[in-house]
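BUG-356 | component: ligand-complex export | severity: low

The export step for adenosine-5'-triphosphate jobs runs without errors, but we want the raw record kept on the ticket for reference. Input record follows.
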Amino acid sequence: MIRRSIAIKIGLSILGLIAVDLLALYWSLQQLISHVLVSGGAGQTTSARVELLLILSAVGAILLATGMTVFLSQRLAQPLVRMIHVTHEIGQGHLDARVPARGDDEVARLGEAINELARRLQRLDASRKEFFADVAHELRTPLTYVRGYSQVVADGLAKTEDEEQEYLRLIRDETDRVLHLIEDLFTLAQADEGILRITRETADIGELAMRVAQRMRPKMEEKGLGLGVSLQPDLTADVDVARMEQVLFNLLDNAFRYTSAPGQVNIVIRQRGDSIEIAVRDTGAGIPQADLPFVWDRLYRVDKSRSRQQGGTGLGLAMVKRIAELHGGTVEADSEEGVGTTMTIVIPVKAVESQQ
Ligand SMILES: Nc1ncnc2c1ncn2[C@@H]1O[C@H](COP(=O)(O)OP(=O)(O)OP(=O)(O)O)[C@@H](O)[C@H]1O
Ligand SMILES: [Mg+2]
């Protein structure tokens, strides 16, 4: 359909040129015929004049055709020249430059593709800037605490030994936080570069979930949260066991952090077609609908100050998503404020090409 419209344009141009040529031919023949009729015979002067007329009409036709060709090719090339100019501008960093894309032919489609590319680059550029600002902020906050607490200890300002120990503990916690942040950022950067390898083995997903649940249970019960696991038997999949444990741990850790007692956390594992679905449900605070699509983004926290107090850096779910993708799987978030949250990951049973 689109290809046809370009063909129509070129066809019309060629027809135009033929029409110009035919008109010129018709005009010169008419001149010639009337001249022959008027002179009533073919003398030497007459034949010279006829020759001249023929040459003039041929030159006229060539000039007209050339003029038409230049005009039409200019019209066809103009949008392409504009596109070259705009792509050059985009390459120079002017990401708000746009190509005027009108119509529905291939040229217009190319223009729209260039505009879409520019829009995507603009979005990437904005999120890159935002990301660096967030990382700087995330590093500065704990390091400021470390500096302050160590100054207090160094100046001997702690009144008791217990108070000094408390400051040292806070320094250790904040240092752990920075280390955790750097480690996660490093892993995510490796995943982005496509050098984070996963080592798959056929594993019983139920057993894997039970192991992680066992590790979390004492902490949950101490806080006043119940932890249940419901699963279909014999569900196996080709996964990187350590990475999948990390996924489940991150989801349970969130359920633990953002659910207040008394509450309940459930892991539900079942078959979904050729995949296995692992869902972690909690009866916690929930996530506002407006925030829900962004919880998978790096360093995104719904309530910045609250989740910082609870130790969050906003990388846990980004890691979950990346690991699920490395397994060829997907993630889903479902939540209702004041009711609870369900985070689901769907992993293919058999290894498929990962979305690196
Ligand atoms: N189960 C949940 N209930 C309520 N809010 C949640 C839940 N899971 C995630 N969130 C919200 O999504 C945000 C992002 O979660 P994510 O796990 O990525 O980061 P985090 O928990 O803040 O830090 P960490 O990197 O230590 O996991 C959290 O800060 C929290 O606001
Ligand atoms: Mg988390």
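Assignee comment: Attached the raw record above. The chain has three domains: 2-94, 134-193, 201-348.
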